Amino acid sequence: MCQNRGLPGEGCRHVREPVALARSAIRLASAVTLAVVAYVPTYFPYVGPWRFQLGTVAIIAAASVILGTRAISLLGLKVPVRELGIALVVFLVAWWSARWILVDYVSSYLEVDPRNSLPALVQQTFQVLNDEMVMRAALMTVCLRFVQRTAWAVVSMAAVFALGHVALYGWLGTAMHLSTVITLFSFGVVANTLFVRFGHIAYPFALHLAWNSHRFSTSYALDGTRLSPGQAFNLIEGNPAITSGSVVVMLLVFSLFLRTIPPEVTTCKTLSHAR
Predict the structure, then answer these.
(1) To pair with 45 at 20 to 30 A between CA atoms, which of 55, 162, 256, 273?
(2) Helix (H, G, I), strand (E, B) or coil at 231
(3) In the chain, what is the straight-line distance between the N-terminal and C-terminal CA atoms, in Å?
(4) Given strand 218-222, what is the order of strands in its sheet?
(5) Poorest-confidence range of 29-33, 166-170, 240-244?
(6) Number of CB atoms found within 10 A of residue 35's CB
(7) What CA–CA distance (Å, rounded) separates 67 from 63?
């Protein structure tokens, strides 16, 4: 029991503050470690067919070593059974919507060659899972701990998500258009809002996979010349209609769900479970 001779709660607070700082430091170190494990080995030294699966194993293993049984919660994998079913419905609706946009609509101005295959779907599933465990769950949880203002945390991590794509494709030789960045930022806001509201990655994962399963298993060309990944981003995610639609969805989700969360938080469901 805390002995306090000063103001009510003062002594206990002095004991709690170093502990809270230590926990925050551990979470920050964990998130950075997971980010390194997720992206460095799978995008640079090893580019084989099993790279994303190996990345998933490495992320979960690293989180388990650092956090023990709390790793599942920190990675956003603790999902109620009922919400798994809802997430499946969300995925199916989003999958058909993404197919219409990325195949039917985009074919009005680009040459589209869908190449859906089981190996490609498996690759996308693990890649998206890695992104969501690290970017959405681990880093977002740490951001909430330090920023504490829910809206600012959501927006700042969405900016990190968008700028990460800018850096990657800039390194590959393509500068992203502003409209492309806005689309990526909008998706980041939607996904972060859903994670903070529900405390797991099931819904962001469903939306992310529905889009990527079509987007990166389809070949796009213009006037017979196949587009590079960066060029495709600028002509698809940077399309004015797609960008406008993403902004509308972002504003709708942000206003609908964020109002149910207190404006100042040091925790979300996932963070409280990970203590």
Answers:
(1) 162
(2) helix
(3) 20
(4) 111-114, 218-222, 225-226
(5) 29-33
(6) 17
(7) 6
pTM for the predicted model, two decimal places: 0.82
Of 62, 212, 220, 30, whose CA–CA distance to 126 is shortest? 212
What are phi and psi for residue 222, nearest 5 degrees? -130, 120
How far is residue 69's CA from residue 4's CA, in Å, rounded to a whole number?
33
Residue pointed to by tokens 């998933």: 56
Residue with tokens 């800018």: 166
> What one-character DSSP code corresponds to residue 8?
T
Instruction: Tell me the pairing of strands 218-222 and 225-226.
Output: antiparallel
Beta bridge partners of 112: 220
By the 10 Å C-beta count (0-12 exposed, 13-18 middle, 19+ buried), 161 is classed as buried
Q: What span, in angstroms and rounded, lies between the C-alpha atoms of 259 and 216?
A: 34
